[in-house]
What we know:
The structure holds 2 protein chains of 2 kinds. Chain A is mostly helical. Chain A has 9 helices and 2 strands, in the order E-H-H-H-H-H-H-H-H-H-E. Chain A has helices at 22-44, 47-68, 86-110, 115-140, 152-174, 181-206, 211-221, 226-251, 256-279; strands spanning 11-12, 282-283. A two-stranded antiparallel ribbon of chain A has the order 1-2. By secondary structure, chain B is an alpha+beta fold. Helices cover 24% and strands 14% of the residues of chain B. Chain B contains 7 helices and 6 strands; from the N terminus they run H-E-E-H-E-E-H-E-H-E-H-H-H. Chain B has helices spanning 2-8, 46-50, 76-80, 104-112, 127-135, 149-153, 170-177, and strands at residues 17-24, 31-38, 56-58, 64-66, 87-89, 119-121. In chain B, a hairpin with a 6-residue loop joins strand 1 (17-24) and strand 2 (31-38). The interface between A and B is large, with 41 and 46 residues.
Amino acid sequence: xxPYEWMVKYTPQxxxxxxxxxxxxxxxxxxxxxxxxxxxxxxxxxxxxxLIGWLFIIVFKGGFHLAYLGKPLRFWRILxxxxxxxxxxxxxxxxxxxxxxxxxxxxxxxxxxxxxxVVFKVLAATTAFLVAVYTGFVMNYVNGIHxxxxxxxxxxxxxxxxxxxxxxxxxxxxxxxxxxxxxxxxASRILLIxxxxxxxxxxxxxxxxxxxxxxxxxELIRGSLAxxxxxxxxxxxxxxxxxxSVSTYFAGEASYPLLxxxxxxEMIGAFTLKYSILKAGMYAPLIPTSTY
Amino acid sequence: xxxxxQEHFLPPEIFxxxxxxxxxxxYPTVTKQMYPVLCNHCEEAACVKACPTGATTRRxxxxxxxxxxKCAGCRYCLIACPYQQRTFYADGSKEYFPGxxxxxxxxxxxxxxxLQPGTVLKCNFCAERVDEGSAKGLRPGxxxxxxxACVNACPSKARTFGDLDDPNSEVSKxxxxxxxxxxxxxxxxxxxIYYLIR
Lengths: 292, 198
């Protein structure tokens, strides 16, 4: 974009996707992956999966967020305004998840089956869900970017987080985790189809949010971001894993190479989905058309 | 724009006040529109609600300010502002004449107006001038010493500053008489900047 086109034409947001903004994208992706993996691993009672999910949140999500801040040493100040700011709420959810998750992991490893384990499992699962959902609300609050200003975004982020959690839990199973791969596959199959529908509804509804929303969707479908959407999100994120999942449904059991392909392509889908949503976010021109 | 940069010793590539120019239509009925844009100091400012640290606040007189000592540089306010009137001050070492060191004016500016790299900057309606002038009993928008630099500097008197809450102030009369309008009122932020056409 040329400097003289700034806010005269539709202006893409760059702060959360370009240069250091890449860190925000990575933080959002790992937030979804970590929270989703934790929740799914909790369902399968896989301690390894829970630990990896928890580490994703503390190391990658937390680390990337801190690295992105202009003044990282003031990160504690971000917790101060939960009454109005979704970012503050998100940081609190993340902090609580880190604490509750750590206690739960300790209980599950050394004191399994105790009341303490159950209590902290509930607390950690609740905060993990909130970590997965808050990013959607952070973006949904921005009414200047019509593509993001959608009530479907938090739902989409939770759903994709859980879907990716199922993919990662299968990866944990490949390394010897005690997980029912067939059950995970069946759940993946349903979630993949649901996600595909939700993405389609989300994009369709964004075109009704306003002209900037329509412009964003056109950019995703036909513009410079089309390869990311069609190859990354649709082909790798949905078609490949669905095809493998359906073939294993009839074949009975998935072979390792096919399972690895499905997991890797779902990961590509997870990264490209958030990339395309962040990158396609646009502001409407400042000059009102009514005065033309 | 220059008066603003001079008043606040703004570093290279940082503008609190900008001019947006667009051309619409086809020859021979082309319309050129020029809008000076700056922070709208919104009544329902999206940036104030988005700020997780409480660094961005709205004063009683309606001026939205950033406390640089509290800003953590998360840039959520920058994303939340539908008018894109905030800038992240990333690099404090930039000079107006690269490789030649800071000019005398830049050195003085860094002492008088210590902007912090790693924080978000925006127009503060020359809050210092307004406060100093008001403390002396001067009236903002009427007396130059209590009026923002951009308003003082405009040679064609295209800018007017004053109290929107006072129905008898010059700004209120202008908005009423010349049907002043806000940019994108549909965002619901209630901007305090109004534009007048002809």
